[in-house]
Specification:
The protein has 104 residues and is an all-alpha fold. Helix content is 87%, strand content 0%.
Length: 104
């Protein structure tokens, strides 16, 4: 029995398992970061809209500021959320369906 072959095979299997673990943890972290970033954009826009309505005393100005800040924040963070979505879908069986949001 050639111990060099056995040890190299076990080492290779261990490396492959570690790669899988790191890929899975990276995908989970990217998914969680994407969710937190998206919620931050939404709640940031709501906060800015509420503050504007409170300071100005007019609800329509609060709505206007909230919608405009959502558009601006969404445009600023869209590339980051798109990249995080692609990282989170890296281990999916159907990568393109995962990126597109198809649950089938």
């Amino acid at each position: 029995m050639d111990f060099g072959t056995v040890f190299s095979h076990d080492r290779f299997a261990g490396v492959a398992m570690l790669e899988w673990i790191f890929d899975t943890l990276g995908a989970m972290g990217a998914g969680l970061t994407n969710a937190v970033l998206s919620m931050g954009v939404l709640f940031g826009a709501i906060f800015l809209g509420c503050k504007a309505a409170e300071v100005r005393g007019k609800n329509w100005q609060g709505w206007l500021v909230g919608v405009l800040s959502f558009v601006v924040l969404g445009a600023m963070f869209y590339p980051a959320t798109e990249a995080l979505t692609r990282v989170a879908c890296k281990n999916a069986d159907d990568f393109q369906a995962c990126v597109d949001g198809d649950d089938d």
